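Continuing from the previous page of notes. For each protein in this section, the sequence appears first, followed by its C-alpha cells. Read the first protein now.
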Amino acid sequence: MPFDEGAAVSAIIDAREAASEAGLRYVSDEAPGIGRRRVGKGFSYRQPQGGPVRDAATLRRIRALAIPPAWTQVWICPHPEGHIQATGRDQKGRKQYRYHPRWREVRDAAKYDHMVEFAHSLPAIRARVDADMRRPGLPGEKVLATVVHLLEATLIRVGNDDYARQNQSYGLTTLRHRHVAVEGTTLRFTFKGKSGKTWQLGLADRRVARIVRACQDLPGQELFQYRDAEGGLRDVTSADVNAYLREIAGRDVTAKDFRTWAGTVLAALALREYQRADSQAAAKRNLRAAIERVAARLGNTPAICRTCYIHPAILDCYLDGALAFEVEAEPELRDGTGRLRPEEAAVLALLLERLRGDRAAAGMTSATPRPACHVAAAWPRLGHGLR
C-alpha cells in the first residue's frame, strides 16, 4: 500500500493533542535520550549530554519502568512526563515500548471509542462481504471477502508472515493447504497458532467450503490465493485484508477489530448466564470464569483477553450490578443497526450509553446511575466454529 503522508501527519497531530490534554509531553525516541550501558550484573545510565545520571528521582523512574535486561538499543525519555518513557529492541530485534501510565489510559480510551465506530461499520462490511463472496471465479475481492467472513465465523487471527516464517505459527492469511480439510460442506481447521497453541475448529458453511476447495485447487502451498487481472497467482496478506476492510468500511478498520468486538459481546453473553452476585467476591469469581470462557474461544490467556479484547464497560457494569439481561433485545435497539445481531445491538447501545454517561459525568460530583444492558441470543452466535 502507498504511504499516506496526510494520514500520517494527521495521526501525529492527533497524538500531540491527546498527549497535551493528558498533561503529557509528546516525544520521539529520535530525539536525544538517556542511554543504558551494562556494568557488571547491572546497568549505568548516561544523560543525553554524556554525563552519568545521578538524580535519585530519575533513577527511581528508570527502575520503575522495569526495562528487560535483554533489551538492546535502549532509549529512555529524559522527561518524566514524556508520553513514551522508553524504547528498545527485544531478543528477536522487535521494537518495544514503555509508555507513561496516563498515555496508556488515553490510548485505551481511544481504542474503545474505536470499537463503537467498528460496530457501526459492521452492517456495511457484512453486506459488502456477502456481495463479494458471490462474485464468479476466484478474483481477489472474493478471496478477501472469504477471509473476512472467516475472521468473524472462527475468530482465528489474521496471521503474520514473520510468525509463520520464524515460529511456524499460523493465522488465516498464512494457512497452508494442509491446515484445512474440506469434507462436503464442512471445513476442519488444524494448525499451530500464536504462542504455540493448537487450533482445531469445525465450520459448516456450504459457500465457504466451495470457495476454499477452489483455492486448494490452485498450485502452491498457501491456502488463500487469487488470480490477478493478468491471470497470475497472488497470496493474500494481512496488509491486503486490512486495506480491503478500510475500503469497504470507509474508515480505519483492521482484522483485529473483529476479535475485540467478539470478545466484548461474548463476555456480555457469558455474564448473562450468572445470577446477580450477592458479594463483590462472588462477582469477581463470576467475572474470572466469564473471561476464561472468552479467552478459550479467542485462544488467548485470560489476562490478555481482559486487557486487550473486552471493553471494560461490560466488566464494570457487571461489578456495579448494573448489567441486566432480557430474553430479546428491545426493538428500538435494532433501529438503524441493519445487519447487527440483536445481542450486538444491545451491547452497542450499552457502550453508547456508558460513553455518554461518562462524558456527561466528567466534572460532576454526584454519582450517575449506570445503564443496564439488554442482551439476548445464544452463546455460539459469534465465532461459531467449534473448538
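Done with the first. The second protein uses the same format. Note its length before scrolling.
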Amino acid sequence: MRKSAAAVFALLVAGCGQPGQEAVPAGHPPSFTPPPTIAPSPSPTPSQPMPSAYGPLPPDCSQHDGVLAHFGQIEAATGDRYLPLSLLNCSDDVVDVGAPTIGGFDAAGEPIELTIEHKGLPLKLGYEDVGFVHLYWASNGRCERGVQELRVTVAGEDLSYVEGCFQLGGSFAPEFDADVVARLSMSPAP
C-alpha cells in the first residue's frame, strides 16, 4: 500500500512543472533569458490634427472660410451614447454658436420628434478658436424609436449623421429630461 501511495504521490508532484521546462537541481538558480525588445516605430505625421480630449478636431482653416463642423464617432459607455461635434471658426468674425437644434429621422426620412436640453455656457468663437458640442443620450440598447439619422444645426451649419440605429432611450431609459443633451464647451488654449 505504501509503495502504491508513494508512486501516486511521485506522479502528482512530477506534474507540477511547466511543459518544456527542465528541472533545476536545488542550489542552482535557473538561467533567465529576457524576451526580445521591440523598438517603437516612428509615429507617422498625421494628415489631420489628432483628436483632443474634448473630441475630434476639424481640418485647419488654410482652405476654408466660415465655421467648419466635424462629427466624431459615437461612443457607448454604461448605457449612454456620446457623439462629439467639433467647431472651428475660420472667419474673421466672432461667431456666437448659439443653441443647437436637432432632428431625428427614420430610414424613410420621416421625422421623429426629439427633445433637446442645452447645457454649458454660451459659446463664442474667435478666429481659429475650437469649440465642442457634446451630444449624449440614455440608451436602452434597442431601436424602438427607429431614429437612423440625426440632423444638427449649429452656428449656421447643417450637419447630418447617419447610423443604423441611435438606440435613443424611450420608456426604459428615463434618466434624462430630454431625448438628447447638448453640452457646449471650448477647447483650452494650447
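What the second structure shows: The longest strand covers residues 80-89. Confidence is low (pLDDT under 50) at residues 39-53. We return to this in next week's lecture.
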